[in-house]
């Protein structure tokens, strides 16, 4: 004789509900992002239909990759005058600085976009992973690269020196 869920003990009901919730959330989380296998110099991650290369902290001098970059510092409440970056220094929107999720603070990068280039220093963390971007540059760097009007753009990145 089969026992229905309504007449089952409370522990059994909790177990069934727990298994059901686990199967729902685990399967949807697995489908949300399509992760490629890790590679020697980093990992590729699919976010919002863009393939972004995320270099690891071990990447060294001369390593190059392409990144989707945006600029920050134009009125964002998080970056008002006298706000501090992840490195502890004051944020200067006209400085040649950038934010990256994994590169060590102090790393210098050569950025090239549309025939224009500049050298920036990583002094902050970001951008948020859900944005699909892998590099945030200050307004000063964006002006030199010609990214102010568009807001975002693909940049070629070469690691010049790691701290």
From TrEMBL:
A Gene Ontology BP annotation from the UniProt entry: peptidoglycan metabolic process
The protein's name in its UniProt record: Endolytic peptidoglycan transglycosylase RlpA
Xref: NCBIfam families: rlpA (TIGR00413)
Keyword tags: Cell wall biogenesis/degradation, Lyase
Key word Transcription regulation present: no
EC number: 4.2.2.-
Gene: rlpA
Primary enzyme class: lyase
Top-level taxon in the UniProt lineage: Bacteria
Source organism per UniProt: Methylocystis heyeri
Lineage: Bacteria, Pseudomonadati, Pseudomonadota, Alphaproteobacteria, Hyphomicrobiales
Biological role stated in the UniProt entry: Lytic transglycosylase with a strong preference for naked glycan strands that lack stem peptides.
């Amino acid at each position: 004789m089969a026992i229905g869920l309504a007449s089952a003990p409370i522990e059994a009901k909790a177990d069934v509900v727990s298994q059901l919730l686990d199967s729902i959330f685990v399967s949807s989380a697995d489908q949300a992002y399509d992760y490629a296998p890790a590679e020697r110099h980093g990992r590729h991650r699919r976010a919002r239909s863009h393939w972004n290369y995320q270099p690891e902290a071990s990447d060294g001098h001369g390593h190059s990759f392409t990144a989707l970059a945006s600029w920050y510092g134009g009125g964002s409440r998080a970056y008002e005058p006298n706000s501090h970056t992840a490195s502890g220094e004051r944020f200067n929107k006209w400085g040649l600085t950038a934010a990256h999720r994994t590169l060590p603070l102090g790393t210098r990068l050569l950025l090239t976009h549309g025939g224009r280039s500049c050298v920036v220093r990583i002094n902050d963390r970001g951008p948020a992973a859900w944005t699909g971007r892998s590099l945030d540059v200050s307004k000063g760097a964006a002006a030199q690269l010609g990214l102010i009007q568009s807001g975002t753009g693909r940049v070629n990145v070469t690691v010049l020196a790691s701290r």
